Amino acid sequence: MKETRNFVLRGNICYSLDPTTLETIEAGYLVCEDGTSAGVYRELPEQYAGWPLKDFGDRLIIPGLTDLHLHAPQYGFRGLGMDLELLEWLNTRTFPEEAKYGDLEYARRGYTIFAGNMKRSATTRACIFATIHRESTVMLMDLMEETGLKTMVGKVNMDRNSPDILIEESAEASARDTLAWLEQIHGRYENTRPILTPRFIPSCTDELMGRLKEIQRDFDLPVQSHLSENQGEIAWVKELCPWSEFYGDAYDHFGLFGGGVDTVMAHCVWPSEAEIARMKERGVYVAHCPQSNTNLSSGIAPVRTYLDQGMNIGLGTDVAGGTGESVFRAMADAIQVSKLRWRLTDDRLKPLTVQEAFYLGTKGGGAFFGKVGSFEPGYELDAVVLDDAELQHPQELDLAERLERLIYLSDDRHIAGKFVAGRRIF
Ligand code: GUN
Ligand code: FE
Predict the structure, then answer these.
(1) Ligand 1 in contact with 211 (CB < 6 A)?
(2) pTM exceeding 0.95
(3) 150: which of 72, 283, 381, 393 is 20 to 30 A away, CA to CA?
C-alpha cells in the first residue's frame, strides 16, 4: 500500500470500549483518516468508497498493544537468573549487564536485536528504560525511531546504592548529564520521546530527586519508575526516606507522582490503602507486570482493586524480569495470576476476564499515549493484523473466541501486519 494515511482496512475487527465491553465486527471496515480512526463500519459509508482499501480477508484486526514497562538493556539476559529475588537479581544479574552499555559497540549489538524484535512484535507503543549512559541511550532512541513504533525512552538516573560500574558521580552530575541528553535529542525524532527515569527510590538521593523535578518542570516531561514491587525494597525505602508516609509518597514529595505530571509506576504489588488512594488521586498509571512479579517471586498485584477503583492501568512485560516482549503473554499471565490471588489470598477479588486483560493491553495502557488503543473515532490508528489460520480447528469459533485463543497461543508468526498512527510498519 502506498504511503497515504487515508485508507480503509477490511477484516474481522475487535477492540475494547471499556474493560468489560469488547466490540467484534465480522468482515468490517476500519477507516483511517490522516492517521486517526474515522470509525468501524459493517457497511462502508459512501464517502469512503473511493479510498484505497486493503482487504485482510478472514484475518483479525485489533488495536496495537502497549507495553507500559520494559528495559531494553536487559533484553540480552532474558530467561536467565530467574531463581533470585529483586534486590539480589539487580546486583548479580542486572547491574553488571547494564554496565556494559557504556560500551557503544556492545550497545549497538544489543539494542539492534531489541529494536528488531520490538518491530516484529504486536506492540505499537512502549515505555522503555535504557541505562545511565547518555550516548547509548541516544543510540537506542535512534534505533527505536527507525522501527516506526511510538515510544518513550528514558536515560536512567542512579546516584546511590549502586555498584561502581553503574553509578553516576553525584546528583549534580546525573542532572547535568540528563540535561545534556535532552539537548542532544531536541528536535531529532518524530516517533520517540524522552521520559524522565529515576530508576527507583533506593538508587536516587533526595538531592537528585529535587533536581529531576526541576528538569521535569522545565521540559514538561513524563516520568517512569518502579513502585512497591518487593517487600524488602519497600522496607529499604522506609529506611532511606523515614519522612515518607509510604513508598509512593517518596516520589510525590518531589512532585514526581502524577497530578499533572504523566507518571507510570511499574509493579505496585504491595500498596497500602493510603498509597492506592494517592495513586488514584494523582492519576498515576500502574504498569502491571505479572510475569516479572512471578519470576522474581515479588507477589501478585491487586489488579481487581485498581480496576474497581477506575484507576489508570495497563500492562508491562518488564523484560528481563519478564522473559519476553509479548504483551499477549502479559494478558494471559495477568489473568492467570489474578486467579491465584483470588483462590489463595482474597476470594472477594474476582479474577480478570479475557476482555479485561485485552483492555489492559490495548486501551488501558494506550491511554498513557493519548487517544490510543481503540478504534473508536478520534483514536490514533494503531492496528495489528493477526492470521490465525494455523490455529484453526474444525469447530466453529466466534471472533471473541478466536481472539482469546490468539492471546494464549499466538507468537510472531501470527502477526501479518502492523500500523502505527496510520503508517504501515510491515
Ligand atoms: N527496580 C529497580 N530496577 C529494577 C529493574 O531493573 N527491574 C525490576 N523489575 N525492578 C527494578
Ligand atoms: Fe522494571
Answers:
(1) no
(2) yes
(3) 283
